[in-house]
Amino acid sequence: MTAPHEINAARELIARTGETLYNRQLAHGSAGNLSIRLDDGTLLLTPTNSSLGYLDPARLSHLASDGRLLDGDPPSKEAFFHLAVYDERPTAQAVVHLHSTHCVAVSCLCHETTDDVLPPLTAYHVMRVGRLPLVPYFRPGDQALAGAVRKVAKDHHAMLLANHGPIVAGKSLRDAAWTYEELEETAKLFFLLGDRKTSPLDAAQIAEINRAFPS
């Protein structure tokens, strides 16, 4: 069982991180959700209909590993895909899901292939994000999305939900949030460059980065 002081520290961390992401305009209104997996396998998750900029640590949803509410407010309706990511990625300790402008814009485009929908424009995108697969569209709250997320999460810590936004898992909440920020910056570069001829990193350069900075 996770000690109460550790749970309280995780609650405070989620609230501080949510406020930071909100103030950086990566989250808006009541969109998006954050979670941390505790040492005992239970989860802390942002509640339904809550703004990441104004979270009350004491009211965060505390869930069992099967999704049962242990205490706190009812969880986000998207709790099921957090659970799916954790099931497929045993090393993941946090999940960030936001609706940031440029990432959502990428999710609305038509893509010739869906296995990697952003070019490797920078070494930092390769290091932090890697390949970014596109998951087919499901309406918000559709439990069928869990199966689609599971298929992708086993091999990818970041994915993009069509017409929705990214899911990013990390070894800590800070790690997941920083990866999300790198992803949004790459999406922003993608649109700034537009139709101009670009020189994304090639396979040899990507392989060198992966050897130097193994995940």
TrEMBL record:
One of its GO terms (molecular function) is metal ion binding. One of its GO terms (biological process) is pentose catabolic process. Residues 12-191 form the Class II aldolase/adducin N-terminal domain. Catalyzes the decarboxylation of 3-oxo-tetronate 4-phosphate to dihydroxyacetone phosphate (DHAP) and CO(2). Keywords: Carbohydrate metabolism, Lyase, Metal-binding, Zinc. It catalyses: 3-dehydro-4-O-phospho-D-erythronate + H(+) = dihydroxyacetone phosphate + CO2; 3-dehydro-4-O-phospho-L-erythronate + H(+) = dihydroxyacetone phosphate + CO2. SUPFAM superfamilies: AraD/HMP-PK domain-like. Belongs to the aldolase class II family. AraD/FucA subfamily. One of its GO terms (cellular component) is cytosol. Its cofactor is Zn(2+). It holds the Pfam family Aldolase_II. The keyword Protein biosynthesis does not apply. Its EC number is 4.1.1.104. This is 3-oxo-tetronate 4-phosphate decarboxylase. Gene3D superfamilies: Class II aldolase/adducin N-terminal domain.
